[in-house]
Write a structure and sequence with these properties.
Elements (H helix, E strand, L loop, with lengths): L9 H33 L3 E7 L2 E7 L6 E2 H27 L3 H9 L6 H28 L1 H4 L2
Antiparallel strand pairs: 1-2, 1-3
């Protein structure tokens, strides 16, 4: 029989799922930006420059960035935010007491384009439904009016 979350952890689980939702969306958007940047750089030969001689924001040929290289910035920000995403995944996974494979599946959401968006909806719905069901069962077991009917 698999372990189930403790009732005392339900408030922490709600916080963890909210944190996971936010981290999932931000990581997904950053991953899509990273994919677009990689396509521009390697297929189009362009990089994104901020504050250079060609204007506030401009695409310049790869290797000629003279100001702030936003292409590299997107790469770095996604990498660090993926660590935050993994932490949110670990926190939710450990509170829900899921098998390790579930942790790995959710972790893939930060490296497979669009997967974080699908998983965010699915995981959030699953966790919230689980909590609602467990709370309904607990309420019916402790409701003295229901016990006398």
């Amino acid at each position: 029989m698999p372990l189930e979350p403790r009732t005392a952890d339900f408030p922490r689980i709600r916080g963890a799922v909210t944190f996971y939702q936010v981290a999932s969306v931000i990581t997904g958007v950053l991953l899509l930006l990273l994919c677009a940047e990689m396509l521009l750089k390697y297929a189009g030969g362009l990089e994104l420059e901020l504050g250079g001689t060609r204007g506030f924001l401009a695409f310049v040929p790869a290797g000629t960035v003279a100001a702030v290289n936003l292409s590299t910035g997107i790469l770095i920000v996604h990498g660090w935010f993926y660590v935050v995403y993994l932490f949110s995944d670990f926190r939710l996974w450990s509170l829900m007491r899921w098998p390790f494979g579930r942790f790995l599946l959710i972790a893939l959401g930060g490296i497979v384009p669009f997967l974080s968006f699908f998983l965010e909806v699915r995981i959030t719905r699953e966790v919230k439904d689980y909590l609602a069901d467990r709370e309904a069962v607990a309420a019916s077991e402790t409701d003295p009016v229901e016990a006398h009917r």
